[in-house]
UniProtKB/TrEMBL annotation, chains A, B:
It comes from the Bacteria. Keywords: Coiled coil, DNA-binding. It comes from Streptomyces ureilyticus. Residues 3-71 form the HTH merR-type domain. CDD domains: HTH_MerR-like_sg6. This is Helix-turn-helix domain-containing protein.
DNA sequence: GTGCTACTTCAAGTCGACTTGAGGTCAAGC
DNA sequence: GCTTGACCTCAAGTCGACTTGAAGTAGCAC
């Protein structure tokens, strides 16, 4: 039989079981049944979890991802949305490119203080005028 | 006289006054005095706020940024830290590059369902094996 | 001197994605 | 049959960066 125990899904998908329960509560995944208390999953859940991980990586929220599944569970991904996200990502990448180069310069800059480095000052001006949203990192941390 | 009122600093720096108070509480900025109750700022605070914005953009936390100022208020930025952040940023950029390209492909892909597109499936596998931390957006929102 | 209004303080609330803790249950091994 | 341990539920907590709300106050115009 092909049913997977929650522990196995957790292990294979690389997420804690608590996350699986949380996703279920949010309607992102479904368990195919129970053995006693324990959730059993259809192997297809792994693909679905991969899809969720992908969506998260692309910057979609869990709610947005939830909307990407048709009621029957089939992914129903709006191509326009993907294209829009790709463009958004592209803009962000460009910004990060500039930032990375500037950081590198600042790191290598021979000016005695960063405030005396023209490149650094230019960076500052840019930062002052065009703030970019930047992230927190996901740090699940140890038990 | 060159003192700026909190409202003016807020306006010029493009952040709400509440943020300035919050930053002060965190020790990131300091007001130069008061006129009555109202905070007055030295114009240098604008540069400092730009520095903070820059740091945020680069992915530093407020606490990390706080540590980038010497007790005398002068920025004291560790070049090694900058270089490390630049490398971190570079890795992230590469990941996002791949992701963007894949999203674009998926958006343009002629397969009837995404699950039948080989590129999409490859993407999925990658997402499943190497999860990437991705951000929340800063959405200050309307009053 | 009175009002208006933009500031002030301080505590508490928000957002998203989970995690943690307390107390309970059950399949399996001995 | 009893223990063990991994799962269960449900509520509450966490993290970071702020925002919001209530209640108070001072500078300025009149």
């Amino acid at each position: 039989m092909a049913e997977l125990d929650i522990a196995e899904v957790a292990q294979r998908a690389g997420v804690p079981a608590s996350t699986l329960r949380f996703y279920e509560e949010k309607g992102l995944i479904a368990s195919s049944g129970r053995r006693g208390l324990r959730r059993q999953y259809d192997p297809g859940v792994l693909e679905r979890l991969a899809l969720i991980a992908l969506g998260r990586t692309a910057g979609f929220s869990l709610d947005e991802i939830a909307r990407m599944f048709a009621p029957d569970g089939q992914p129903r991904i709006d191509r326009q949305m993907l294209a829009a996200k790709a463009e958004e990502l592209d803009r962000k990448i460009r910004e990060l490119d500039v930032l990375r180069d500037s950081l590198r310069h600042a790191a290598a800059c021979p000016a005695p203080s960063h405030m005396e480095c023209p490149t650094f000052r230019r960076l500052l001006k840019a930062a002052a005028s065009g703030p970019v949203a930047m992230p927190r990192r996901r740090t699940p941390g140890p038990p």
